Amino acid sequence: MKKIVLSFICLIFVLIMFVVNNQSIYVNASYVENNFSNFTSSSYVLLDANSGTKLAAKNENEKMQVASICKLMTSLITLEKIDTGELKLNDEIVASEHACNMEGSQAFLDAGSFYKVSDLLKSVIVASANDSAVVLAEAISGSENSFVSLMNQRAKELGMNNTTYANATGLPAPNQYSTAMDTSIILKEVAKHDLYVQDSNIWMDTLIHPSGRETELVNTNRLIKYYDKCKTGKTGFTDEAGYCLASSASNGNLSLIAVTLKCDKPQDRFKESMDLFNYGFANFENKQIIDSSKLLTDKIKVNLGKTSLANIGFKNDFSVVMKKGDNANYDIKLNIKKSINAPQQLNAKIGVATIVKDGKIIGEVDIVLKEEIQKQNFNDIVNKVVENWSIL
Q1: Which of the residues are catalytic?
Q2: Sites in the chain below the pLDDT cut of 50
Q3: What separation in angstroms does the CA of 68 have from each of 49, 60, 125, 165, 313?
Q4: 291-377 belongs to which homologous superfamily?
């Protein structure tokens, strides 16, 4: 009964906060000035999600606690275990006493009861449930401490060099910290998983416990409901970390990531993130430099193949984010093999395109075969001889 009352009180409090602060979340979409002097966030960064180009920043590499934003890593590892088949969404795992005794935001799990991985993960992503995060950590690694080692290993692999985890929840702990820049890295990585994006866009849902009891799950990221460009995100709060938010948004072909850390008030993290997004959308655009759907004019010579020439093109698109109205020129330098020997597979690499701006290399894209090349057989050789003889 106590947990039901606590759940109800939390829900009412959240809804009241939404109503009271409703006006603070709307900003002028024509925001065109980089006027962030009134921000309360101690650290922030705005990035182009595709290239990682920094569009605005303050103390983006300063180490600080980020609270429940740590659960981005907990979610990522869980999703990766699901991808490899080590964990299944329908698997049922038991909620330990240790997990159910977590402080802060909870799904109010019943100790000793079994819960589906899908429900636990959803409660972490939507409602930032600390108890569910620890249950997942224990299921994957046997203990939360062992899971933390996995978190720190994955952080190093992603290049998050200014991040150290001490638990799976983000609750205050000695020697646990991250940065706005590192947070942008983990958000980009976890957003590659459709399930994370799908769950992070749920505004309200219900977790039904094995006993039949229900817990309302309310999304802690208000941008999902009130900012139509928002695609995904994760909030965080403790007294030590302040109010934090990592989020992404898209407008046309421009996708951005914004991170605001240690804001003074809960509404500040949302307003300041939207100010960053609106600044980015108003002032920047993506310019496509390479279009992988188009073939190169020249073909490559094929030795001993069924065809003597093969179509070639770029492996992937390449775009750059730039200030609107910027007419900078980009040079594309091609380095392609003179010929290839059959057989060759589709998309086999046969060269590289180097993109140069103002004499500086800003990127490279592989040049590949746009068709499969088969080796000629005896009949092909005979037919070719006959064809050449007839021409003579």
Answers
A1: 68, 71, 128
A2: 2, 4-6, 8-9, 12-30
A3: 22, 18, 10, 11, 44
A4: D-Ala-D-Ala carboxypeptidase, C-terminal domain (2.60.410.10)
